[in-house]
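haha ok so turns out i had the wrong file open the whole time. this is the CORRECT one, sorry everyone. sequence first:
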Amino acid sequence: MQPRTLCEAALLLGGERKLAEFLDIEVWLVSRWLEGLGQPPDFVFSSCVDLIESSKQAATVADERDKGAQAPIDKDHRVKLDPST
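then structure:
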C-alpha cells in the first residue's frame, strides 16, 4: 500500500525528484521506497496521504464550481457553512 501511495503522490507533484523536495529528503530514498525496498518513516507516508487527500478535495471543489454550484448564502450575504440551517 505504501509504494502505491508514494507513487500517487509523486505523480501529483511531477515525479520522484519533486516528491523528494516536497518531503525534504534525498531522491534515492524516494526511489528506494517506490521500488518497495524498505519502509518510509511514518511522516513520509502521512505527508503523502495528506497531499493526496488535499488534491482530491481541491478536485471536488473545482468540479462543484464547474457545475455552477453555488454556496448557500444567508440573509446577511454570508456563506452558510451548514446549508441545513
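The first helix runs from residue 2 to 13.
again sry for the mixup
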